[in-house]
Design a protein that fits this description.
Elements: H1 2-54, E1 57-58, E2 67-68, H2 72-78, H3 81-111, H4 117-131, H5 134-144, H6 152-159, H7 175-200, H8 204-212, H9 217-228, H10 230-245, H11 249-254, H12 266-276, H13 280-309
Length: 310
């Protein structure tokens, strides 16, 4: 009995230093994380919850005696073309941007997967648009899209005889397509980086075994590469879809939603409603609806890829 008690005392005494060390490490980690958590709370969570709060109230401009109106703001926003027309333009902008960003990113990732010397230089060159500010990208494309002969795009096409007169690239008919081109150029490197990282994590033994079984490059892509890339594809699609759906600064700097609201995306409509018209509550309502749409699209992506995997 005394020997058992002595062993238990030794075990407990040996566990105390480990427990003390574990608590000390967590305390130090928490101290270092507190500034980051405070920053996220102030600049991310608080604005989010405050936007949800505002969407249930109503007030006059610069008047803080708000009155609770329940779902009235949601009913008015959802019952107006002020929401649905920008939503349709945003859907078109998001669909084609995601298709080209993901497709071109996958092609470039497959092309640059092998470790050649020039591939490192090409990867660095392709990543340059992604590290630029969206405002800088907008300024670059404004120089390309100038509607007269001084525009770089018109000048180049007229020099080689493709067109005979300048084209108003940011006119009503072409503005959406040109904005999509700018966004694809800006966002495609992210898709390439993510997919390239996923490709490099696949072991070469899998491809060598399939070659012994007679599989060609196309069969390897369909039955090996894409299935093993599903987690990376999910993360990439969710990120580029939500970021494109929420796009504001690049498009606003390039066209400000014009001309004639042809590029008036939902993010721009939210900004105009809240800060130009002064209807902060309805602007917050649009922001909450955008969040719900983003959440819905993420769930759809997850269920689609999980269903294919099963």
């Amino acid at each position: 009995m005394e020997e058992r008690t002595y062993r238990q005392a030794n075990i407990q005494s040996s566990l105390k230093p480990e427990k003390w060390r574990w608590e000390k490490e967590w305390t130090i980690a928490l101290i270092f994380l507190l500034p980051v958590l405070a920053f996220i709370g102030v600049f991310a969570f608080y604005p989010t919850f405050y936007a949800v709060y505002l969407s249930f109230y109503n007030s006059k401009f610069l008047v803080f005696d708000r009155t609770f109106v329940g779902l009235k703001n949601y009913a008015e926003v959802l019952g107006s073309s002020v929401f649905w027309l920008p939503l349709w333009k945003t859907a078109v902008f998001t669909f084609w941007s995601v298709v080209y960003q993901f497709g071109l990113g996958l092609l470039l990732a497959l092309s640059l997967k092998k470790t050649f010397r020039i591939n490192g230089f090409l990867r660095s060159l392709i990543v340059i648009p992604w590290i630029l500010s969206p405002i800088v990208v907008a300024v670059i494309f404004q120089l390309f899209y100038i509607s007269d002969r001084t525009g770089l795009l018109n000048y180049m096409l007229m020099s080689v005889g493709v067109i005979s007169e300048p084209i108003p690239w940011l006119g009503v008919e072409n503005a959406m397509n040109m904005v999509i081109v700018a966004n694809v150029w800006f966002g495609m490197p992210f898709s390439m980086i993510m997919l390239l990282a996923g490709l490099q994590s696949i072991q070469n033994d899998v491809y060598e075994a399939s070659m012994i079984d007679g599989a060609n490059k196309l069969l390897q892509l369909w039955y090996i590469t894409l299935p093993l890339l599903k987690p990376t594809i999910l993360v990439t699609l969710v990120w580029i879809t939500t970021s494109t759906f929420n796009e504001f600064d690049l498009v606003y700097a390039l066209t400000a939603g014009g001309p004639l609201e042809s590029t008036n995306l939902l993010g721009i409509q939210m900004y105009n409603t809240a800060f130009k018209i002064g209807q902060f509550e309805k602007g917050s309502t649009i922001a909450v609806l955008m969040f719900l749409i983003n959440l819905f699209m993420s769930v759809v992506y997850y269920r689609m890829l999980r269903r294919k995997e099963g």
